[in-house]
Amino acid sequence: MTEQPPVWMTRAFSRPRLAGYLRASDGDPGRAERLYWWNVEASAALYGPLHCLEISLRNALHERLRDAYGRPDWWHAAPLNDAGRRLTREAGRISRRRRPGPVPPDHVVAELNFGFWVSLLSKGGRGGQYDRQLWVPVLHRAFPHYSGRRDELHGTLDALRLLRNRVMHHEPIHHRDLVHDHRMIYRVLGWISTEAAKEIQVLDRFPAVLEHRAATCGGGRSPRF
Question: Which branch of life, at top level (predicted)?
Answer without folding.
Answer: Bacteria
